[in-house]
Amino acid sequence: xxxxxxxxxxxxxxxxxxxxxxxxxxxxxxxxxxxxxxxxxxxxxxxxxxxxxxxxxxxxxxxxxxxxxxxxxxxxxxxxxxxxxxxxxxxxxxxxxxxxxxxxxxxxxxxxxxxxxxxxxxxxxxxxxxxxxxxxxxxxxxxxxxxxxxxxxxxxxxxxxxxxxxxxxxxxxxxxxxxxxxxxxxxxxxxxxxxxxxxxxxxxxxxxxxxxxxxxxxxxxxxxxxxxxxxxxxxxxxxxxxxxxxxxxxxxxxxxxxxxxxxxxxxxxxxxxxxxxxxxxxxxxxxxxxxxxxxxxxxxxxxxxxxxxxxxxxxxxxxxxxxxxxxxxxxxxxxxxxxxxxxxxxxxxxxxxxxxxxxxxxxxxxxxxxxxxxxxxxxxxxxxxxxxxxxxxxxxxxxxxxxxxxxxx
Amino acid sequence: xxxxxxxxxxxxxxxxxxxxxxxxxxxxxxxxxxxxxxxxxxxxxxxxxxxxxxxxxxxxxxxxxxxxxxxxxxxxxxxxxxxxxxxxxxxxxxxxxxxxxxxxxxxxxxxxxxxxxxxxxxxxxxxxxxxxxxxxxxxxxxxxxxxxxxxxxxxxxxxxxxxxxxxxxxxxxxxxxxxxxxxxxxxxxxxxxxxxxxxxxxxxxxxxxxxxxxxxxxxxxxxxxxxxxxxxxxxxxxxxxxxxxxxxxxxxxxxxxxxxxxxxxxxxxxxxxxxxxxxxxxxxxxxxxxxxxxxxxxxxxxxxxxxx
Lengths: 409, 308
Fold this sequence. Notes:
The structure holds two protein chains of two kinds.
Chain A: H1 16-32, H2 38-51, H3 56-67, H4 74-87, H5 91-98, H6 116-122, H7 128-137, H8 145-155, H9 159-170, E1 178-186, E2 192-193, H10 195-204, E3 214-221, E4 224-229, H11 235-248, E5 254-259, E6 263-265, H12 267-270, H13 275-285, H14 295-310, E7 316-320, H15 330-341, E8 345-349, H16 363-368, E9 374-376, H17 381-392, H18 398-408
Parallel strand pairs in A: 4-5, 4-7, 7-8, 8-9
Antiparallel strand pairs in A: 1-3, 2-3, 5-6
Helix pairs in contact in A: 1-2, 1-4, 1-5, 1-6, 2-3, 8-13, 9-11, 14-15
Chain B: H1 12-21, H2 28-40, E1 44-47, H3 54-65, E2 69-73, H4 80-83, E3 85-87, H5 89-101, H6 107-114, E4 120-122, H7 124-129, E5 138-142, H8 149-161, E6 163-166, E7 170-173, E8 179-184, H9 192-196, E9 199-202, H10 208-218, H11 224-238, H12 248-260, H13 268-273, H14 275-278, H15 282-287, H16 290-304
Parallel strand pairs in B: 1-8, 1-9, 2-5, 5-8
Antiparallel strand pairs in B: 3-4, 6-7
Helix pairs in contact in B: 1-2, 10-11, 11-16
């Protein structure tokens, strides 16, 4: 890279403290949870060299351009930037602050996401006297201690139970349903001729023969979007269902959202290969485990922020909740309707269905029922097996869905 | 064709001036990231809601630099043949037959003759790698989120090495890398591997001041007072709890619509009648009833004076 012809002549960034500071800054961001690889670090130094260090704002957006790769990361970046570049501490001092992070095999305590910035600065095994200061610092960011306790509770579920559930869920034969994509692949029985392959095959014979090759649409497993209620009344069922979703995600695209009082996307966390690690990560992300539930608000949040992003590939939506919503009003029905219209099939899994005499009396349940394509129990392994069988059944066309709903009412 | 601006622009300010001169009003953040993308020769991924002006960045850049704009509109099922290149099969077959008729029998020779540049049809990606007398073109890969992961994987080679491998022909590499702008509406998450190769910027809804500047730059025929009202109303509308809030494109449409209707000021009836220009979901339109509109207009009236 030639030296930048910037109007404000500056020392190249790789000399002096600036480069070192950028590297520390990058490490802080990484510790705070951003994906910062060595390539990005190099980019950052180059970028600052190219842009020249003008105002603080320019430095901010220059580093932002390089480090932030997801809109969601903006706030973390903002927080780290504000603390780091305000501080103007010498690099060595920062290194000192950082060093506890590098202590090998330090037992990692469960920490809610909002604390990550603070922890990136203070390290994990911070001295007790800093602890007090810490409380005053991050009061505005931290989830309540009760949430932490709840999270811990989940992480400590009995190993026996976990092993058994995992073994049996892993042994489930997963559904073989597929949907057609618009991408074409080589297919001897496909409907479309594949000229390119034909011509290549023809050349093998010097052009004497022209064997007709064909292409057809590629099929792939139907994506699944799961909306899982983790309120207090659902606590016993959320865990096995999460295991099920984790197993399902090994074969197909699964987007998982948890909701209690608010909606959390845990898709990335659940992608961890090891189920235990995945579930630990999930519990870490969710502050309102075993709290109350606000179905309408959560569905609205999903429809507004996520539906366009995860429902674009016409997935099956699994809504796992008991539907016990106190403040059920017309918005619940409205959001359910919108959800159903934007997916292939809306399946409601309700553990209350385990009672043989179950009747949909609760207002919430009555408001939601007209908009589901399938209403089934989810309280034991047998019901999970039945779910698998139902998922493998061919999708119901949209017109058919309407009729089904009319029949129920 | 406009005068060739100096490339790459020497500073962030110069980048900002370059775009403003061509009718796009960028904020400092966008100017910075664009400046970096141009200086570092890296693709730029722009994400943001529909209608905030992501595509327009590429268009303006091409216009301002006097470069060719090559646009690849993404769609589901887009493959190599549609995006990079395709062979001209009928011509190839005729060539084979002619070779046969001429008595050629060397398979390798026929193959190399048939799979040569002559029979190659270039699609946008390959086209963008070709040398251009006006300078490397601006390659716009629009709405990347509409393709599937398989296509993204293919793009990786283009984005980091500015080259495309054609099995029958070899690797085509750009002598001077094109300026690449990718846009995404986030109907799907873009893979990390692709993001890593790009600089990233989230294009947000503009502030009232910037939106007014945009309106002035794009639609100078709209009276000042009306522009102010339009911007203030749209800004107030964006604070409402809507399923899809209007973008800049909708603001421009609405201002143009009001001028068509010979309006000099926004009144409740007019706003009600033209709401479909701003809001595209029935639920949102139903929610924005007469009472809401008069409340929004009140807010807008107070705010309009404050916009510089």
